[in-house]
Design a protein that fits this description.
Elements lengths: L1 H21 L6 H4 L6 H6 L1 E5 L19 H7 L12 H10 L19 H10 L4 E7 L30 H9 L5 E7 L6 H5 L1 H20 L3 E5 L6 H4 L1 H10 L8 E2 L15 E4 L10 E6 L18 H13 L2 E7 L9 H17 L7 E9 L17 H4 L11 E7 L4 E5 L6 E5 L3 E9 L8 E4 L2 E5 L2 H6 L6 E8 L1
Length: 490
């Protein structure tokens, strides 16, 4: 019988592969947007972003800004982000620390990655409960983490195989991750701030640098996700995005399974491409798969200027994940290794604690979809107070466990799969949980996911009242949400 099931599974897989390869996509959005999103992505819910490159050497920018933008801050003498800046902070820091004659390109040899252990990274990601990762193969500074011909067309070597690490960092991590069940994604910046061709002739940059480079990346590593960025300066027509995606879906080595995001030209986010993306936002809901990305602290790249209190707590990170998943999205949570290849211990700790929670509560997260109501609100104002360029991570605490005067809080989050409804509760202080508008019948079962304990309940009018024993609440890790599995409720 087992052999028959294996044979059937193989036949179905072969049929799907044949259908996928038989579908041809035209170089226009009407055709490209019809390409299905692989089912694994909607089930994954949690991914890890990794910003790593020569900017990890200085690893510094003012709080509230992106340290991976170091080259741009340095050469433009400008800053933007959350805070009140003069603009020349990075320039002055650089001059004081490295001197007038030390250029950004001099960081390349110091990006040694000598402590980079790809197997240890992959193991950490798996223990964290992540289902996919996205590594910056090239950021806006143009430095590639793989050996690439176009990376050197400035007139000098600017890739990790020839400079600094002397290693194919993309290749090594790809190989290690593929020994696990985690999917491998690659970030790629379309533009480069100071590439000579970008500054002088953007059409030549696209034709002679960008397109051959990104095709080399895809053909070499065949990633599960190609996560593009840096698209906002020119239109998709000038990027030749429709043409490239038709090649990607019809001819590339990853054509049968590769997934892309929505960053393919000026003004195109949340309009075209694969899944939609948001960045340091909240409260979004879309009619197709989507993903919110943000850092553990504020910066994506490692910023040694950030202190422990600038990092979101495990409680906040889990509540963000739950909030996003209840609205049908994924969380792509960023970490920034240092220039030697160390993942800072505070980042490791957060990932491990998230993985510990997901090991017990993952059934309420992975493979779920939004329920008929994503959240149960208390009375009050539901708007988010948002000052600054980017929404800080404390928004979710204010919306759940740190109630502000006059503001509503999210008392319960809901998800569902084809068998159950899940209620995820941020505040573990109440022994009587009231789920408004839920109705039980004689078949209803209510269980605490962490312990497996069956909980007693009463139907009172339109509300379901669940008794949560003190030992269950005490058994949950302090300040972390807990999950309840409900079957046969409406």
């Amino acid at each position: 019988m087992k052999i028959k099931y294996i044979a059937l599974a193989f036949t179905l897989l072969l049929a799907y592969s044949q259908m996928a390869t038989a579908q041809k996509y035209e170089a226009d959005w009407a055709s490209l947007d019809q390409r299905p999103i692989p089912g694994w992505f909607e089930d994954a819910k949690f991914g890890i972003f990794i910003h790593w490159g020569p900017y990890s050497v200085p690893a510094w920018s003012p709080k509230g800004t992106y340290s991976e933008w170091y080259q741009y801050w340095l050469q433009s003498k400008s800053l933007f982000g959350n805070g009140d800046f003069k603009g020349d902070e990075v320039y002055e820091y650089h001059k004081k620390t490295y001197g007038d004659d030390f250029t950004y390109y001099d960081f390349g040899p110091e990006f040694t990655a000598d402590l980079f252990d790809p197997e240890a990274w992959a193991s950490l990601f798996e223990k964290a409960g992540a289902k996919y990762i996205v590594l910056t193969s090239k950021h806006h500074d143009g430095f590639t983490l793989w050996p690439n011909e176009q990376a050197n067309d400035r007139g000098f070597a600017w890739n990790s195989m020839e400079v600094g690490a002397k290693r194919d960092l993309v290749g090594e991590l790809t190989q290690a991750v593929r020994q696990t069940e985690v999917k491998m994604g690659l970030y790629y910046s379309l533009y480069e701030w100071y590439h000579p061709l970008w500054l002088s002739d953007k059409d030549k940059f696209v034709d002679q640098h960008y397109l051959p480079q990104v095709k080399d990346l895809v053909q070499r590593y065949q990633p599960d996700i190609l996560w593009t960025d840096g698209e906002w300066e020119i239109e998709d027509t000038q990027w030749r995005s429709e043409e490239f995606l038709a090649w990607l879906y019809n001819e590339s080595a990853a054509k049968d399974y590769i997934l892309v995001n929505d960053r393919w030209g000026k003004g195109l986010r949340q309009k075209h491409g694969g899944y939609y993306t948001t960045e340091y936002e909240a409260g979004k809901v879309f009619d197709k798969p989507w993903e919110e990305c943000r850092g553990m602290g504020f910066s994506f790249g490692y910023n040694q200027n950030e202190d422990a209190w600038d990092y979101n707590s495990t409680q906040a990170l889990l509540l963000m994940l739950i909030d996003i998943v209840s609205n049908g999205g994924n969380l792509l949570l960023d970490i920034g290794p240092d220039h030697r290849g160390n993942i800072p211990p505070i980042m490791q700790e957060r990932l491990m604690e998230m993985g510990e929670w997901l090991a017990k509560n993952g059934e309420a997260i992975y493979g779920t979809r939004p329920w008929k109501q994503s959240v149960q609100w208390s009375e009050g104002d539901r708007t988010i107070d948002h000052s600054g360029s980017y929404l800080g991570g404390d928004y979710i605490l204010k919306q759940t466990v740190d109630k502000q005067d006059g503001k509503a809080v999210k008392e319960v989050f809901f998800t569902q799969n084809d068998k159950s409804v899940f209620a995820i509760i941020p505040d573990g202080s109440k022994q009587e949980l009231v789920l408004k508008g839920l109705k039980a019948d004689k078949r209803t079962t209510v269980r605490h996911l962490g312990s497996g304990k069956t909980l007693t309940y009463k139907q009172k009018g339109d509300d379901l009242h669940i008794m949560v024993p003190e030992e269950v609440l005490l058994g949950s890790k302090m300040n972390l949400p807990y999950s309840i599995k409900l079957q046969n409720v409406q």
